[in-house]
Amino acid sequence: MSLTPWLRWNAAPPRLSSRSPAEMVLETLMVELAGQMREAERQQWERSKAVRKICTGVDYSWLASAPRPAYDLSPGERLQLEDVCAKIHPSYCGPAILRFRQLMAEREPEVQEVSRLFRSVLHEVLERMKQEEAAHKLTRQWSLRPRGGLAPFKGRARIAPFASDIRTISEDVERDAPPPSRTWSMPEFRARKED
After folding, report:
1. Confidence at residue 177, expressed as pLDDT on a 0 to 100 scale
2. Relative orientation angle of helices 111-144 and 75-86, to the nearest 10 degrees
3. Residue 118 above 70 pLDDT?
4. Is the distance from CB of 85 to CB of 119 less than 8 angstroms?
5. How far apart are CA 4 and CA 131, in angstroms?
6. What is the SS3 assignment for 110?
7. Mean per-residue pLDDT, 41-61
8. Maximum CA pair distance of the chain?
9. Strand partners, 87
10. Rg for the chain (alpha carbons), in Å?
11. Is the pTM of this model over 0.70?
């Protein structure tokens, strides 16, 4: 047993990663894509092996295994996916991965379809981010809005508990009749007459 790890008590503490959160999200999502592509490729190879075995009736895979062709993204497609991944906020990285894994399990796509599925999940997450940002912005606007109660109405409206200038169809009849008694607890709101 070595005592070297115990003697490092005066060594500098381990540093935190110097990478930005956006870089870590990008790397995490691209590693997830590569892993899912390898898994889809393995499943596709196993399916084709099972079909060959059924067709020929004999399994020669133990004798010689041919090297499997590896599917790789084109550089342009990889750059496009990295660009979209860079727009994902770190708090949405986990849900994006979970949604991608869920769709992979449901659909079991071919290797060539995995990048399209990944792109659709990223766009779905970006849309959700935009919707939540808009809702947050609206909430912030309402919370920062001044609350004055009836103060904004003071200049425009006058409260008159006993006056009634409401015009009706039977105005002639009402003019001659005594005004109805109003309830004290129900004031009448009316706008100022502007000349």
Report:
1. 62
2. 20
3. yes
4. no
5. 54
6. coil
7. 81
8. 113
9. none
10. 36
11. no
Question: In the 3-class helix/strand/coil scheme, how is 58-92 assigned residue by residue?
Answer: CCCCCCCCCCCCCCCCCHHHHHHHHHHHHCCCHHH
Give me 123's structure tokens. 């766009």
Burial 112-135 (b: 16+ CB within 10 A, else e): eebbebbbebbeebbeebeeeeee
Chain center to CA of 194: 50
3-state secondary structure of 9: helix
Q: 144 is written with which tokens?
A: 């920062």
Helix boundaries (H) for the chain: 21-56, 75-86, 93-107, 111-144, 171-176
Residue type, 145: R
| Total length of the chain | 195
- The residue type found at 175 is R
Q: Quick one: which of 162, 160, 167, 168 has its CA closest to 180? A: 162
* 57-103 residue pLDDT tens: 776 666 666 566 678 889 999 999 999 999 999 999 999 999 999 99
Of 52, 121, 70, 61, nearest to 92 by C-alpha is 121
SS3 130: helix
β pairing state of 157-160 and 188-191: antiparallel
